[in-house]
Each structure stands twice: as structure tokens, then as C-alpha cells.
Design goal:
Layout lengths: L1 H18 L3 E9 L9 E4 L5 E3 L5 E6 L4 E5 L6 E4 L6 E6 L11 H22 L8 H10 L1 H8 L5 H30 L14 H14 L3 H4 L6 H11 L4 H34 L7 H33 L1
Helix pairs in contact: 2-3, 2-4, 2-5, 3-9, 3-10, 4-5, 5-8, 5-9, 6-8
Length: 320
């Protein structure tokens, strides 16, 4: 009898072992900004086995249903999740700790503040002369890609295009108000800014660059400056300093804001859809590349101006 029970117990253990046999599970790890996390350590608690995610945040592990895995990486909170189903792909979110670099990351504002935060940033970029470091262009482009998420944070009409229209209208209003504030500031005390000393938040050279830009393009500078980082922050201030006619400024201000906001948001929204449909390439998973590309394109005029400006100044000095 004892031998029979022993055999039954052995067969039971063998069956359990076979049933609990580990299978390959594909794990995708992203942060709260929906970016893939590479070189994250994934540990299966039961076995102690550890694997590392690749450049796309992917890793294959051996696990069973009910296994707990731990995700760890420097500057990230340790995350524990339980595998509910070993079939298919398992997605995990690891929370990235705040760093100052996040302030130039568009998704930081979209995730943490939604539409209201974006409106504040667009206003501050031109309404406050210290807002030149905000990622205006890339923020609007990414906002177009995540327009559904932005709409859900405040309103959701149920219509994609109506949501886009409302986001564009509110953002345009914020930009117009910001430029108007800069104009009033420049008209009131802007001239004294040429006597200010440089500090971490203010560089006099940016004011001179905006003035040169205004002298070259006239009233149209208010429109063109919208597409040039740093210059757009100081252009309305310079317009106030030279006392541009209020009606003329209002016209260029409204036109510039509409063109800038609409082109960036609609560009992000429809480019995301087109590329996904044509090439099955999701821009949402490659935001870092997008941001770098936009920054390079939009800052190129400023960099060229700085480089050739220095060369011209040096030649002028040598000729004296």
C-alpha cells in the first residue's frame, strides 16, 4: 500500500512539473512616457534567472503563468509584475525618476500635465522671456501624434477631427496671448533689457539676434519667428521695443500662431497615421528620433546665424 501511494505521489509531482514547465515569454518594457527602455534587467523571482532588454525594450524570458518578474534599471523605480498569461507578449511599465533633462522632453508635459500644461508652455515660450528653453516645436508635433490622449485629459467629443480642431484653437489662443504679453513687456520696459547682465535665464545676444531678424524681415518677422526657436521668444519683445503698430502686430501675431500651431499639430497627427499605414512604423515608439530631428531642423537657422555671425564679426574686426 505504501509503495502504491509513493508511486501515485511521484506521478503527481511529475505531472505538476510538466504542467509548470517554463515557456518563452516576450516582454516589452516602456516608461511612463511610452519610450522603450533598453538595458533594463528582467529577473524571474522564482528561478533567479536574469535577462536584459535590447535597444527596442524587448527581452525573451523563461517563465510560467503566475511567475513574478522584477524590472530594474538606474534612475528607474523597481517594478514587480505578475505574468497572467504566458501566451503572446507581456507589456510592462517602469516609472522613470525625474531628471532635469525631462524638461526638454515633450512627453513629460503631455503625460504629467495634459492639454493644460501644453497651453501653459506655449504661452510661456513667448509670454515669458525665460521660456526660450521650452520644446515648443517638438511639443506641438508630438501633441498631434497623441491628440487622442490630450483630448481625453480635458474633453473628448468622440470625433477625431473635432478634437484636433479644439486643440489647435486653444493652443493658438495660448500662443497669441503669449506673443501679446511679450509685445506689451517690450513696449513697457524692453529697452532696459539691453542693459541687463547675462545670466542662466537671459542672454543679451538672443535679444540682438531677434532684433537683427526683425530688421531683416520687418513685420513678417513675427510670423517667421514662430518657426525659429529662441528667436520667437524675443521677436514680440523687439516688436514692442520698436513700437510696431498694434493692429499690424495683432495681424502678424494671429497669422503666425495659426500657421505654426496648425502645421505642427496636423503634421504630427497625419504623418503618424500615414507612416503607420504605409510602412507599419509607429512614430509613438520612436519619439526620441522625432524630437532630435525636429530640434535639428528648427535650430539649424540659429546655429548657422551664430557660426556665420562670429565669422563675419571676426572678419570685420580684422579689417579694422
Amino acid at each position: 500500500m505504501k509503495q502504491l501511494l509513493s508511486i501515485i505521489a511521484l506521478l503527481f509531482l511529475v505531472s505538476i512539473s510538466c504542467f509548470a514547465q517554463s515557456d518563452s515569454v516576450l516582454v516589452t518594457v516602456r516608461n511612463q512616457y511610452e519610450s522603450e527602455i533598453k538595458n533594463a534587467a528582467i529577473t524571474v523571482v522564482r528561478t533567479g534567472d536574469t535577462a536584459t532588454t535590447n535597444d527596442h525594450g524587448l527581452v525573451t524570458i523563461k517563465a510560467t503563468t503566475g511567475d513574478e518578474i522584477t524590472i530594474s534599471k538606474d534612475n528607474y523605480d523597481t517594478t514587480d509584475i505578475t505574468i497572467q498569461n504566458i501566451k503572446g507578449e507581456v507589456s510592462a511599465i517602469a516609472h522613470k525618476q525625474f531628471t532635469w533633462k525631462d524638461l526638454i522632453t515633450p512627453m513629460f508635459y503631455i503625460i504629467n500635465g495634459g492639454l493644460w500644461m501644453m497651453l501653459l508652455i506655449i504661452f510661456a515660450e513667448t509670454g515669458l522671456f525665460i521660456g526660450f528653453f521650452f520644446p515648443g516645436d517638438s511639443l506641438l508635433f508630438v501633441a498631434g501624434i497623441f491628440s487622442d490622449k490630450l483630448a481625453a485629459s480635458v474633453f473628448d467629443t468622440g470625433n477625431v477631427y473635432l478634437n484636433l480642431l479644439l486643440i489647435i484653437a486653444l493652443t493658438t489662443a495660448a500662443g497669441i496671448l503669449g506673443n501679446t504679453t511679450g509685445y506689451i513687456f517690450g513696449k513697457s520696459i524692453g529697452k532696459t533689457m539691453f542693459q541687463w547682465k547675462d545670466n542662466i535665464l537671459f542672454k543679451k545676444k538672443y535679444l540682438y539676434q531677434a532684433q537683427d531678424f526683425y530688421d531683416k524681415h520687418g513685420g513678417g518677422a513675427i510670423v517667421f519667428a514662430r518657426f525659429v526657436p529662441i528667436i520667437r521668444t524675443f521677436a514680440p519683445i523687439v516688436a514692442g521695443i520698436v513700437e510696431m503698430d498694434k493692429k499690424k502686430f495683432a495681424f502678424y501675431n494671429i497669422m503666425g500662431c495659426i500657421l505654426w500651431v496648425a502645421s505642427m499639430i496636423l503634421g504630427g497627427h497625419f504623418l503618424q497615421q500615414w507612416i503607420l499605414k504605409q510602412f507599419n512604423f509607429d512614430l509613438k515608439q520612436h519619439l526620441e528620433i522625432i524630437v532630435i530631428g525636429i530640434v535639428l531642423v528648427t535650430t539649424a537657422p540659429v546655429i548657422i546665424k551664430l557660426v556665420f555671425g562670429k565669422v563675419t564679426a571676426a572678419k570685420h574686426t580684422n579689417n579694422i
